[in-house]
Structure formats: C-alpha cells, structure tokens
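Predict the 3D structure for this chain.
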Amino acid sequence: MPEMNGIDATRLISEDSALGGVRVLILTTFDLDEYVYGALRAGASGFLLKDTPPAELLSAIRVVAGGEGLLSPSVTRRLIYEFARRPLPERPVPRRLDGVTEREKEVLTLVGLGLSNNEIAAHLGLSLATVKTHVGRILAKLGVRDRAQLVIVAYETGLVAVGL
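Done. Predicted structure below.
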C-alpha cells in the first residue's frame, strides 16, 4: 500500500460514516502484537495471517461480515497470555458504562466471557430476539462496531477479568 498502511486505511474506513456497516478483516504477513493492537484500535473486526488456508479465510469473511469478531489462533493465544499476566484493575471504569442498564451490563459481561447470543439467552432466561436487542443497544450506547470491541470494553471496564 504505497500511500498508507493497513491500520491507517482501517481507521479511515471505520470512521467514514458514509461507509456505515462496513467491517474490516486485516490479512497480513505481520504477526506482531503492535499490528494486532493497532488494527483493533483502528476498528478492525478481524485479524488473520496470509498463510490462513483459503477455506478458513472464506469462513472468516462470513463471520466478520455477520458482525462477529475473529482473530488468528496464534494472535488469540498471545492476547490471552497478555491479559492473563496483567494485574487486575484496581477499580472498574464505570463512566464508560453511563447509560447502560443493569440488564445490559449483564449481557455485556456474558459477551465479554465469550458467550453467543443463544447461550446468553439460555443463561438469562431471555428470548434470542431480546438478547439481540440488548446487544444492539449496547453497541449503540458504547459507540462500538462489533462484539470484538464489546469484549474489549468488558475487560477495560472491569466487568470481566482474566480468570472469571
């Protein structure tokens, strides 16, 4: 990319309201944490390495287009390791959650723990449609694009911590 790198392009695409709903899946040769973190901060919904087999790449495109987040297994392993070695936050950052109802915080916590909408519905005794409505409202209230970013918010605000 002669004029900008993938992270800068991702940021521009993610911030362009005319492209609302567009999701970015990074495909790169760079298996470095700084690229992963930069891509996620810029709004990427997925991060894969170029050696990903074609069938897995097609599946990843469908997953990201469907609104979910996806990371290469090697990246996921490193992110888990990084989170596990960080100290627990001294206190949550509740201001980020201003306007989020208690039920929405419950749903956000379960999203942060990796549960699917069906699993959340079963866990909370709600219908799938109700869970989808809650997830949509949480996305809107927090100004994030997808579940991958909801997981980050759940960790950053202390709703979810490593080992819970």
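Residues 89-156 form a domain with the Arc Repressor Mutant, subunit A fold (CATH 1.10.10.10).
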